[in-house]
Sequence to fold (448 residues):
Amino acid sequence: MIQNIDANKLILEKITSVEREKEDFRNVSKRVGFYLAVGNLVSIFVQLIMVPVLIYCWGGALYGEWIIIFTIPAMLSLMDFGLIAVSNNLIDSLCGEKKYISSNRIYYNSIIFLSFLFAILIFSSIISWIVFKDYFSDIFLETNKNILGYLFFLMVADSIISIFLNHNSALYRTIDKFHWTANWQNSGRIFPLLGVALVALNGFFLLEAAIAMVMIRLIILLIMLFDIKKRIYWINSSWFYVSKRILRNILKNAIGFMALPISNLIVLHLTTILIAMSYSTIIVALFNSLRTFTRLIPQFVSIVGKSLWSEIAKNNNNEKKMYTYVLRRTLILSFFCLCGYLILGKVFFMKWTHSSLGFDNILFVFLILNAIGIALYTSLEVFLLAKNNANKYALIFFIVSFFQVFMGWIFSFQIGLFSYPFFGFLGTVFIVLYLILNIRCTADNEVD
Fold:
């Protein structure tokens, strides 16, 4: 006990030298939101230029095969089963209470959990490759069949690196450096993509691009870990021990989060598969391109809520004021996005795709409405996720996600392709109303 007290005092002396005075949550939101917005702008710019660059270098067919390969880390990086969000929320909360020894133990126990998850991921990937190798290979017509195995496992390695990078980058929040978290995560997304573009421009193809992407992301992770060792003073391996109680606590809270990435996989990938089963490839390309374009709305609007994640996790007493602040600004930004997309969206989309995919006005309008609904709940759900209070919400989110895709598929035969975003919009309305009622009720009870 005395050792813990002395250790906490030692950490407090070090952290006091780097902590800022507590800011009003509005200033925190503006500062963090600025860095998130800049990072998103750069990330979107890189994503937009990647499409024409890779098509120019590789051609449409090979680019399409790269997209299939690239979905592997995109999907697997979502499957951390909530361990990252839960452990980082607990660490944020404990650091806010100056309980750095407990934070240290949660961090190292979460690493044990992630290591176990990585082992399962690697083992399941090997089994999947053995079982589905021939089926997987038949999809690729342009890529050399002999390198597909290398590509597959490079993407698995990339997903592991991404998960570990996201987990550790959140530690900067504990010393009130949320913008460093955003900067490292954006670097982990942007520079690997730039590496892929440079490889393609120099006349190389998929295998070299995959190697470059993995190596760049790994280098960023190693540099970040070295920086964390210098700056996060409460991390000390000598205070670590395996705690069954901590492991159970992390797992218990992670159960609710598990449904969220699974729900996103249903909405994004199951929808694409169902459309591909009923429509031509050009229609699939049109739907996915319009959806990608409109999903830029929640990517920006949700910054309002995400910028206060750390403040909410620290059990800030201003939750009711923060809720009003987030809701008002989210609605204002959503309104401006709606107007901008309705006025300029079609013109931009047609120039971006060189009018090669055509355009569907009704589909576009409902995709915009669906995206705005997503922006609203993504900004508001922070009030539940940041406090590890998401079990009921995650279950409702999963049910609504599955129901909206199922109804979209059923009605697509009667009313057309826009049934998917139509029922998606109805689903987001239900989720937003649930969040508003839940957050207001919780905030009112805390005030009372």
In short: Confidence is low (pLDDT under 50) at residues 1-22. Residues 17 and 222 are 25 Å apart (CA to CA). Residues 256-448 form one domain. The longest helix spans residues 100-138.
